[in-house]
Design a protein that fits this description.
Shape: globular
Largest sheet: 6 strands, mixed
Radius of gyration: 24 Å
Helix content: 25-40%
CATH architecture of the largest domain: Alpha-Beta Barrel
CATH class of the largest domain: Alpha Beta
Bound molecules: alpha-D-glucopyranose
CATH topology of the largest domain: TIM Barrel
Number of helices: 20
Number of domains: 2
Strand order of the largest sheet: 13-18-17-16-14-15
Number of strands: 20
Length: about 625
């Protein structure tokens, strides 16, 4: 369905709150807009990926933004080379006729996570378990400093998804299934990313995503992957996974992500829209549209939800950006897709590869009147207003001295605090936890106890993440050795031991994944993990299981054989925070921000779903007086 040209200014801007843009800024933008050619306006609406941009095109086409997709890293992947890459594009934009500043965007979703050496914070599902907005505000500020250090001023975060079916590979990007908790934590992160003011030198533009109800899709409703065209899918070819695509598809990959949400309008408004209201009140100036559909209509072409609800009813005055190739998914005819999406209210298009095709298509649409000039002007006015609010027209570069902030001890200490507050103690028979700081050795079993990549998860250095020493940090094993002494920690990667131990700790991780690659029909433990558990069970008096997971796993049948269960989620680079709590230097305080289903039959979450544990559950412990402060983790 193609909407008739819509005049954005005609939509009732019933915003009761004052505009986020000053009258002086509005005059500045109006004057600049009046001098722009159609080509320069369309250039501002175009966001290619950095590996696609031809030298000189930023200036020649007046491109408004460039992004790094997951893993879109310079070589070498260091904070300095990130800054050199981004600064060069900013400088090139400054040579364009009107010198309109470029804004660079990255997925800084748990720290500046593409950058080797950056502080990697816990993923959102763990931060949700902290229930601590002040912590999120401090994480937002620390993340902004590390992002701004590389001359980047736009982070595609926070996701305000409300995952209803945790078989979804993006569950861990959601803070919670409770929209009020999501609203509170997302607003705090936005405030942290902003800092004192949007035009401060280290503010970073958040992108509230993915609009709307991205976490409410129905199993089997996604049409993202066609097995027949896998080989030619440029985006999926970026995703380096340890298994073949076909194997992953057989496990359920891409069954939920980018699918169709069949929730009622009442549910959409009361639940999924709620965090966007909060984010706008917190000052959000950018929203990213979801790939998914609502009641069969793709969000990327949804005029009612984008223009009438988000921009109209909610009074959103920032700009709306598409997701990666999201416009292309609207249909077979690309020109039709562009017309529908821009007329629906899309202001900037993330067009990672064929940006010149997009520019030509929108130019045709504007010249033919299928997209009204007023719609183009509204989009560009929004983009320029946000750049003005960020102070980019002044000095477009940040202070290179900020590079000292990347991976700083202070930020790592903050991440360590966040890890400790994110752990949820779900079972603790006989108070086996916290571990005794003295006495017999501890058996730590499983390769995942000593794997930075496993504890960081997806969106870490690469799009999908991956096992191994992907970035500097402290593994859980290193943290335990720092806390208990190396001689009191015996690591058995496969669980085999020659002797018995009073306590055995088994660390089990999901294989890292991102987006639909992580959709899974089976959330149970693998046969290899079950065998490891049996080996350790046979050789220890007390068995503690710690899960490194992007969502609750189905463990109801195995739980009775365990003395303790800890959900550590995806804690990031500072594994010492795990040891601090396991060894009593910090208390267990985390509480579930998701329901923990009893069985696969209880998925998706719906009235009547049985839970093994409920949202809000979590056992607490006091600080062990005999441990004192944990030693610093040994960075690997
Ligand atoms: C991805 C994700 C989105 C991300 C964007 C840029 O496909 O859906 O969350 O911000 O593309 O990497």
């Amino acid at each position: 369905m193609t909407q008739s040209p819509t005049d954005q200014s005609s939509t009732d801007q019933s915003a009761l709150s004052p505009s986020p843009f000053s009258a002086a800024d509005q005059r500045f933008v109006a004057e600049l807009l009046g001098r722009m050619t159609l080509a320069e306006k369309i250039g501002q609406m175009t966001q290619p990926e950095k590996n696609s941009v031809k030298p000189g095109d930023v200036a020649r086409l007046g491109l408004g933004s460039v992004l790094s997709g997951g893993g879109g890293n310079p070589e070498p992947n260091t904070a300095q080379s990130w800054r050199s890459m981004v600064a060069a594009l900013i400088d090139e934009a400054h040579t364009s006729r009107l010198q309109i500043p470029l804004i660079y965007g990255v997925d800084a979703v748990h720290g500046h996570n593409n950058v080797v050496g950056a502080t990697i914070f816990p993923h959102n599902i763990g931060l949700g378990a902290t229930h601590d907005p002040d912590l999120l505000r401090r994480i937002g500020r620390a993340t902004a400093l590390e992002v701004a250090a590389t001359d980047v001023r736009w982070a595609f975060a926070p996701a305000v998804s409300l995952p209803q079916d945790i078989r979804w590979g993006r569950s861990y990007e959601g803070y919670s299934q409770d929209h009020e908790l999501v609203s509170s934590l997302a607003s705090a992160l936005i405030e942290g990313l902003r800092g004192d003011a949007w035009n401060s030198a280290t503010s970073v533009l958040p992108s509230v995503k993915h609009f709307v109800a991205d976490g409410a899709t129905d199993w089997g409703s996604s049409r993202r992957v066609d097995r027949r065209t896998l080989a030619s899918d440029r985006t999926l070819s970026i995703a380096q996974m340890g298994q073949s695509f076909v194997d992953l598809l057989d496990l359920g990959a891409w069954q939920l992500d980018q699918g169709d949400a069949s929730v009622t309008e009442a549910t959409l408004r009361e639940t999924h829209l709620s965090p966007y209201r909060a984010a706008i009140q917190a000052g959000a100036l950018n929203v990213m549209v979801s790939y998914s559909s609502w009641l069969g209509q793709k969000l990327h072409g949804h005029h009612h939800l984008i223009s009438e609800v988000l921009k109209g009813e909610l009074g959103f005055e920032g700009f709306v950006v598409s997701d990666w190739e999201g416009v292309d998914q609207l249909g077979a005819d690309y020109d039709e897709c562009v017309v529908q999406s821009i007329n629906a209210g899309m202001d900037m298009v993330m067009v990672p590869f064929d940006y010149q095709r997009f520019i030509a298509s929108l130019t045709r649409a504007a010249q033919s009147g299928r997209v009204a000039q007023t719609r183009i002007d509204d989009a560009v006015r929004r983009i320029l207003s946000v750049k003005r609010a960020l102070g980019l027209f002044g000095n477009p570069h940040t202070d290179p001295a900020l590079l000292a902030q990347v991976g700083s001890d202070q930020h790592r200490a903050l991440a360590r605090e966040a890890v400790s507050k994110s752990l949820v103690l779900l079972k603790n028979d006989g108070d086996v936890l916290p571990l005794s700081p003295t006495g017999p050795a501890l058996l730590v079993a499983g390769i995942d106890a000593d794997d930075l990549g496993a504890q960081c998860g997806g969106w870490t250095v690469s799009w999908m993440g991956g096992r191994g020493p992907v970035t500097p940090g402290t593994t859980i094993l290193a943290g335990l050795r720092a806390s208990l002494g190396s001689d009191r920690v015996v690591h058995s990667p496969d669980g085999h031991t020659e002797s018995r131990f009073p306590v055995g700790l088994v660390v089990l991780a999901e294989e890292p994944y991102a987006e639909g690659m992580g959709d899974r029909s089976d959330l149970g433990l693998t046969p290899e993990q079950m065998a490891l558990l049996e080996r350790v069970r046979a050789n220890c008096e007390r068995l503690v299981v710690l899960l490194l997971c992007g969502r609750p796993l189905i463990v109801s049948e195995q739980l009775p054989q365990w003395d303790a269960l800890v959900a550590a989620w995806l804690p990031g680079s500072e594994g010492q925070g795990v040891a601090d709590v396991l060894c009593g230097a910090q208390p267990f305080s985390g509480r579930l921000s998701f329901d923990w289903p009893a069985s696969h039959a209880d998925l998706p979450r719906r009235p009547g779903s049985r839970t093994l544990f409920a949202l809000g559950d979590g056992l607490v412990t006091s600080v062990s007086l005999t441990v004192g402060s944990a030693l610093d983790g040994a960075d690997e």
